[in-house]
Amino acid sequence: MSISLGRYLFERIHQQPVGVGSVFGVPGDFNLTLLDKIDEVDGLSWKGNANELNAAYAADGYSRVKSGFTDGPGGFAALVTTFGVGELSALNGIAGAYAEHVGLLHIVGVPSISAQQKQLLLHHTLGNGDFTVFQKMSAQITQTSGFVKDGETGPDVIDRCIREAFINQRPTYLAFPANLVDEQVPLERLKQPLDLKVPPNDKESEEEVLERVLELISKAKDPIILIDACCARHDATKEAKELIDRTEFKYAITPMAKGARDISEDHPRFTGVYVGTLSYPDVKEAVESSDLVISLGAMLSDFNTGSFSYSYQTKNVIEFHSDYTKIRQAQYPGIRMKNVLRSLLDDPKFEDSFKHYQPSAVVKNPYKAEEPKNEIITQQWLWSKLSSWLREGDVIVTETGTSSFGIIQTKYPKNAIGISQVLWGSIGYSVGAAFGGVVAAEELDPNRRVILFVGDGSLQLTIQEISSMVRNKNNIYVFVLNNDGYTIERLIHGETAEYNDIQSWKHGQILDTFGAKEGEFESLKVSTPKELNNLFSDKQFAKNDKTRLIEIMLEKMDAPDNLVKQAQLSAKANSG
Amino acid sequence: MSISLGRYLFERIHQQPVGVGSVFGVPGDFNLTLLDKIDEVDGLSWKGNANELNAAYAADGYSRVKSGFTDGPGGFAALVTTFGVGELSALNGIAGAYAEHVGLLHIVGVPSISAQQKQLLLHHTLGNGDFTVFQKMSAQITQTSGFVKDGETGPDVIDRCIREAFINQRPTYLAFPANLVDEQVPLERLKQPLDLKVPPNDKESEEEVLERVLELISKAKDPIILIDACCARHDATKEAKELIDRTEFKYAITPMAKGARDISEDHPRFTGVYVGTLSYPDVKEAVESSDLVISLGAMLSDFNTGSFSYSYQTKNVIEFHSDYTKIRQAQYPGIRMKNVLRSLLDDPKFEDSFKHYQPSAVVKNPYKAEEPKNEIITQQWLWSKLSSWLREGDVIVTETGTSSFGIIQTKYPKNAIGISQVLWGSIGYSVGAAFGGVVAAEELDPNRRVILFVGDGSLQLTIQEISSMVRNKNNIYVFVLNNDGYTIERLIHGETAEYNDIQSWKHGQILDTFGAKEGEFESLKVSTPKELNNLFSDKQFAKNDKTRLIEIMLEKMDAPDNLVKQAQLSAKANSG
């Protein structure tokens, strides 16, 4: 009645409440025997990536989509790399998950314990006998790390790494020596599922928070609820929605909260997307004139705030975060958002606190732009036009650059899931994330469409993950915005500089070159507004039954208005 | 009479004795203004890569080729990335350069000093206000790091980072804030070229070393000189060759020393490639039966030694290293190889020490294999056949896997430069390194051919750098060995496992898809021994006047004999 330690790891990952169905990564000789164990777990499959950076991006995208679908404690994903070479290639992707609060487990197959003790000059080492150096590097960008040392303590190390990744929605690191894969573990351990609940808040501290929050609400005339990324990542959107529905306070979202679960852009109290000075003027006014700001899961990075241009008129700001609460200037460490919101909603005094409130008018839908009169597609029009093509439940992945800024001007349908790496902003991310995203979506509901928008520049960094989509016959839409180079960089600096140029590719041949099979793929090119209109009204095209790559031809310096403004702010900040 | 600090950096890199002609990297908003300065330096150009990992590989390949060409203190290259996202993507490549002793400078454009002081939540940060975390990560895999803080101390920081990279042949890290690019520096500083000489050895210690070395030589009947990678990296091959020519001692090389400058496989005293138990029996016997082993620049990793299977019969081993010397069991820290070899050769007692020596017979050339009788190309034959096609001065880049093992069985022509990442062994490396290598070769002597051998599996990790070759119209040969997946992994473990499969690509379309222009490229496919013979006797093909991709079809489990044996040793080590 025992199983191997390797299998234990994958059973834990697959078992509820974790519920992972696919593991990402790249094989390497220190992880091969570990990978054998994936197949032993019913319902778990291996999704090999073309390289490790893409594997990390894919795990990130998978985790985000899972948390967008499921009503659970948060997202989770796993990737497996090999010692040294493999794990270091993944670091940028892991750091992105750390910055943006994405739960995932980075499993690294490492040399056997005896090779480490003898300090052998193995391949994939620095040649100095130091086997701890890579773990030290990962420690800078992970919540915690664990090193499996033997069969006896291994399961505890594994459980801790999974739990910490989940609860904190951050990556964790697990080193698994090749020789310990077949150590035996009692099967019984699996009977006790992992407890993934966040720890309860300190009673006394939470009571003080509730008292002050209720008081501020009871005095406010026109509060605004501002929803940001961590509200979704830390599983507090249900509470946020209940807060909105019961109080009828108006609410705005940040760019990073677009497409968060339970947070609709169709709700009668929805006020728009707030990005400081880059907001639509009415939205800016609505947020900044409020006399109480209730902020949920804020992540106040430059690109998420119009270069820190928030400008509330009130000092009455309540910030709920994943692991602390702030009321005006008072901080309450350890008072976690999800728990304290639940307590607030359940508080007998809650209903009374807002009974005086008269729901104020909300901003009229600002998502519109005129169709260009000439033959050229503009980004300003493209993103607003897109609203009409999207449908309920779509998963929309946008690359840093014109796409992540443009999409702010698109109205998301009900239950949309939005994925964009606004804070970390690593170009190329979206391609790997879209692969992970479509794997997750196809596991949960193959009818939901996954739609990627990536520029021709960013695409070049991670192009090989398109091959993974072809290999897995993923029904996905890859929109390549061809504007002949790094447009976001050109806007910031060096409009005509050679370093912002890229090699022109024949995008129409990519799927075929990667071995896509007749009938399973479609490559399209769209150059005029009319062609785009036709495409978006084509019923065949709307059905996600193929791997599709659609190239959209755009002008070199064309960009959505908000990106043009952001670029000016960024250029100024760099020289300051 | 002043120049900008940004320009100062690039002038230093371009100026002799450093002599860099091309800078690699990827633009990002924190490095754009810095990149402007490259164009201001006469003779220096920007070679943008498709992603940062490839940029690091390219810099590594460039540095190796330069050191193979030039009679200077060692190789050097520079790459520029952007803060956080860019630099982390490059880490695996930087670590490889660290492990394998390759001199390069990693320049990172970082946010302005004021943004750092205010701990702003900028994009490309972890969102925690910590701007030092990435530098800490790089510190684990670099010789030293520098942070430019102001215009006054900036030039010293820059000079130190260049010098340390050069002298130690290791990567160094330089953080350059965006707002300091235009700080002014006295032009005069450039008049004093950098001193890149290694520090002199301690006199007393060196004298003791010489005394003991001369004594061991004078007593030896049949010494062997064993040349390894660090002999080339640390610029001691001239001394090594003089040692061989004057003493007429026989010499062997390791896999990592194949294609080292000045070290010919055509020399009358050349004995073969020594890889422990994986050596040809005659070579093994010749090395191991010697009564004095003079080892130059050893890097005793598993793949370089047949899994640590060296087995000398003598205890008389002298090891010269870049920064210490070891004689039998005595270590002499700080006694650097290049200096001590020079002193040995100049020692008045040197000639006397070996006058008793009677040159022993050397091993007959073992490079041969029979042409397969059927229609299938075997690796065993391919690599030996290749010897006849190579010509003087070729630069041969081989990927970890069947190529890096197979190439040991190829006879290198005079002045060949061999590039392979045997210790670090990151798959995909060879593609980026070949791009850097061909850029260096075209700078120095466009007649010299650059020839890449990469497997279809490894190619997928870094395919986009083929696009950089197309973009730069590099005249290169890319041989893609198509054996349908990760053959080296299959040999170690999981012969039929799904995780060792890859997506099949249409390799013949790659150059065209990446936008290669009619007449500037050629895509070929070779499936039989006859076709390969024809190709290798085609005079047009032999001329490096195009970007060429040649797919060679091979059997899934076919591999050179030495790799089959190595894989068995590796599998055993992993389970032990």
Beta-strand percent range of chain A: 15-25%
Which quaternary structure do these chains form? homodimer
Extract low-pLDDT stretches of chain A. Answer: none
Number of DSSP E strands of chain A: 21
- Residues in helices of chain A, as a percent range: 25-40%
CATH class of the largest domain in chain A: Alpha Beta
Terminal Cα span of chain A: 65 Å
The greatest interface between two protein chains, and residues involved on each side, is:
A-B, 98 and 98 residues
What is the domain tally of chain A?
A: 3
Major sheet of chain A: order of its strands? 11-10-9-12-13-14-15
Protein name (chains A, B): Pyruvate decarboxylase
Catalytic activity (chains A, B): pyruvate + H(+) = acetaldehyde + CO2
Cofactor (chains A, B): Mg(2+); thiamine diphosphate
Domain Thiamine pyrophosphate enzyme TPP-binding (chains A, B): 410-551
What this model shows, in words?
The structure is a homodimer of 576-residue chains. In chain A, helix 4 links the parallel strand 4 and strand 5. Chain A contains 23 helices and 21 strands. In chain A, helix 1 runs parallel beside helix 7 and helix 16 runs parallel beside helix 18. Helix content of chain A is 37%, strand content 17%. The mean pLDDT of chain A is 95. Chain A has 576 residues and is an alpha/beta fold. Chain A has three domains: 189 residues, Rossmann fold, CATH 3.40.50.970; 152 residues, TPP-binding domain (Rossmann fold, 3-Layer(aba) Sandwich), CATH 3.40.50.1220; 197 residues, Thiamin diphosphate (ThDP)-binding fold, Pyr/PP domains (Rossmann fold, 3-Layer(aba) Sandwich). Chain A has a seven-stranded mixed beta sheet, sandwiched between helices. A six-stranded parallel beta sheet of chain A has the order 3-2-4-5-7-6, with helices on both faces. The radius of gyration of chain A is 24 Å and the shape is globular. At the A-B interface, helix 2, helix 4, helix 6, helix 17 and helix 18 of A face helix 2, helix 4, helix 6, helix 18 and helix 19 of B.
